[in-house]
Amino acid sequence: MLIDLHAHSYLTCGCSLDPKEVLARAELHGLDGVAFTEKNTQDGCEELLDLGKRSKIKVFVGMELDTDKGQYICFFENPLLAPEPVQMWGSNRERPWSVEECLPKLKSLGAAIVAARPFDAEFPYPAREHLHTLKCLCAIEVYNPSVSLGANEQAMEAAKKMHLPGVGGSDARNSLDEIGYAATLFEKPIGTQRELVEALRGGAFWPVMMGELAKLMKPGAARAAEKSKKKKKRRWGGA
Question: In sequence order, what are the residues at sequence separation of 6 or more whose Cβ sits closer than 8 angstroms to the Cβ of residue 82?
Fold first, then answer.
């Protein structure tokens, strides 16, 4: 089962994507599911889950959490019951939430946690080497077309050293054209939010890079990216 584990909608501040249109585009690319991972909130998840009941494409809900040491995608078995970050740690306007405080708390609440774009230099507080100290991760995002090839390579190497599986997601937030370039292949069908969380804890999944890499890369990088893609397929078993 092929799922885009990292997508956004108008429920994320600064994003205007209609979730219905995201699902329609995902279907065109042969995806089986989309996880909407709105930034720092799960407010509106009921709307997304209701949409999934009427869609051919499975809908899952997560949350992309910004911290002082990286971004993390968190999935709960029942997102409707999960507390909002601002309720637990207050406003993050003055300073970012502490990763040392947030991740253990979220795990204690039953979240499956994935490190997202950990080496992305464009994020003010990337995880970088601090990633290796975290003990509560289920996986690391190693394919994200919104970050540089080098950042994805570093995430791949970190996952290998930490003996964690990798995932892929489009991180679509600016355009529907961003959908269909990365996803995660699960060994077994995933039908519910609970099954997704259980699958992420189980580790039977693989990152998949899709589409034409040249459209997403800077001039001159496409050939190197294609070579790297072939090497990753052999290493991870990607499709």
Answer: 42, 63, 76, 109, 111
Cβ neighbours around 188 below 10 Å, total: 12
Check if the beta carbon of residue 82 is closer than 8 Å to that of residue 46.
no
- 37 near 167, Cβ under 8 Å? no
Tell me which residue of 166, 67, 69 sits closest to 127, measured CA to CA: 69
- The helix (H) or strand (E) run that includes residue 183 is strand 182-186
Counted residue by residue, the chain has a size of 239
Per-residue tens of pLDDT for the chain, all 239 residues: 999 999 999 999 999 999 999 999 999 999 999 999 999 999 999 999 999 999 999 999 999 999 999 999 999 999 999 999 999 999 999 999 999 999 999 999 999 999 999 999 999 999 999 999 999 999 999 999 999 999 999 999 999 999 999 999 999 999 999 999 999 999 999 999 999 999 999 999 999 998 764 344 433 334 444 444 454 444 444 44
CB–CB of 21/7 below 8 Å? no
| 3-state class (DSSP) for residue 231 | helix
Closest listed residue to residue 75, CA positions, set 238, 209, 207, 199: 199
27 in helix, strand or coil? helix
Which tokens sit at 199?
């699958």
